Amino acid sequence: MRLRAAAVLVAAPLAVQVLAAEAPDPLAVSALEKFLARPAIARQYCASRSLEASGGGQRGWIEVKTSFAPASGFAYQVTSEGGSGYIRRRVLRSLLDEEQRLLALRSTNAAITAANYRFRPGGLTDEGLAVIALQPLRKDRSLIVGQMLLTRDEGQLVRLEGRLAKNPSFWVSRVDVVRSYRSVNGVFLPVSLQTSAQLRLLGSSKLGMTYRYSEVDERTVSEGGAGPQDGATPESCAGV
Asked: Quick one: three-class SS letters along 141-195?
């Protein structure tokens, strides 16, 4: 009964296929064009993460140090944990293990590309973000039926939200995902992931993960750069 949302964690903005929409906002069209033109770059980083999940009357959490570099891949080290051993092992650690596996394979199955999606530019939100509808080209548990929100000036990905195009397993269904991004040292990176799902026999479940970056591309994260939050001190990547 694993919540296999890890594929969502490695989605990267690449070339996209545009579908005509009824009277799309020109700013949304422009944002999508800029998003499409931006090359995908694998960013090296060090970050601590907090993960928590609950379901079936159980709750578990872990704190981890993580690092990623194109040459060495993704690594993590659990620094503290508590709650349900089952949730920690089968959900939270499984999520990180799946991310590690997919990054090692350099998989593009979850990438935001014309090979995986069609896109429909729409209007603007009250926040001024461009709304781009997502339509997967196939039923795949790593793809999302929903939308992405882009900054209208630069076409930067701010939020990805929707439901997995295919249930991860017989035991897990209706998986809804919201992944948020922020500028960290001038680079837009994921800062939170929230999912909810239905577990057969156990009912509803929820999972949350937040990121606190200390280094991006070998540069220390500046104050206010969506790195150390709430006054926290950056953690070193040493030993990860």
From this structure: CCCEEEEEEEECCCCCEEEEEEEECCCCECCEEEEEEEEEEEEECCEEEEEEEEE
